[in-house]
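re: that chain from earlier
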Amino acid sequence: MVKRPCILWIVTTQWRASATGYAGDPQARTPTLDRLAAGGVNYAQAVTPHPFGPFARAALLTGVPSPQNGVRDYFDPLPVGSRTVAHTLAEMGYETAFFGKWHLGKRDPEAPLVGEAHARQCVPEGARGGFEFWEGFESGFLLNDPWLHGTRLPEPQRFPGYQSAVVGERAAAWLASRREGRTESPWFACVSLEAPHPPYAAPADGVAPCDPAGLQLPGNVPRGGAAEAQARRELAGYYAHIEATDRAIGRLVDSVADDDPIVVVTSVHGDMHGAHGLFRKGWPHEESVRVPLLVWRRSGSPSGNAGRRSDEAVSLLELPAWSAAWAEGGATPPGGLYASISMPSVVRLPHQCDRGWRGVRTPTRKLVLDADGQPWLFFDLAADPGEQCNLIDAPEWAAERAALLAHL
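^ sequence. v structure.
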């Protein structure tokens, strides 16, 4: 009989793929992620299927893209009764647990998104995605002193400290209690962290912000105006939260070493940070759709040799199927040549993308259509990784555009 491995998903928010040490960003102090990349597999072309929180989270948990999973609008909850990875693994004998940011509950569009009221909103037991143990918060964007509720906390309770550290420590304590109780069944835990999402100026567990003036900006950030100033100001805090959250991830991974879990580290989307003069997410550009995706295990990654970089076209949509394969003792299923990306609807919040869209991305090309099917963007990512030359009307690329269109 196969000895099923424990599985740990660590899911961050707004951490773009380029903002890591192993990806070559000298401003990103990420020794934990660098260690996992060196000892595991780095899916360097990974994308989120939808670069906005609720859409991506619903897709990640169900393996079904939005809106087919029931989340079409930013305020749509994950439908009660939705089948998630928690159901699949529970049927395979796993104990399942969720910790941290949920962002799939029923929300009032007229209520403030930021603050204590949202952070204290309770997610009913029947709306927690099938997880046997659940402890978290709907949202609220409080990167410090989070409010938690759930299986062992019937009412929201505030916990002092940096949110990534608090959630990680609570998850580590629960997993340690299983070992102390000599529980034999394998576990699957999803630890969902809000950082490095705004507010970027919030304290970052003692990590000081960078000097904005000294930051190196990519070439696709316009210089000399408001976009550059905002990018520098926000990136200074962004990198501080990346460092603080990397530390919290390191402590969590080290705490469960005796269980030898398969560890996944990723993010639900990135952030534009001034690229093309744009900010936040929802956009089809690389800064918004590409995310870190690492698979590591101390005794050997199921994805291949330690330190391997994969350039397969993979999406967060695949993680439930990957986890089911690992649970059966199998290797990571191979990726493909194409990954679908889309925004099911417009999110009418400041700085976000102004239209719905759908597209297809390969490691070297990207085609994007408007919601009405009109061509919008086409990039040669191999020659133009900063997406500064839109080739949507270039006649010499017509055949490639047509080939990609067939995969939409």
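The CA atoms of residues 264 and 295 lie 5 Å apart.
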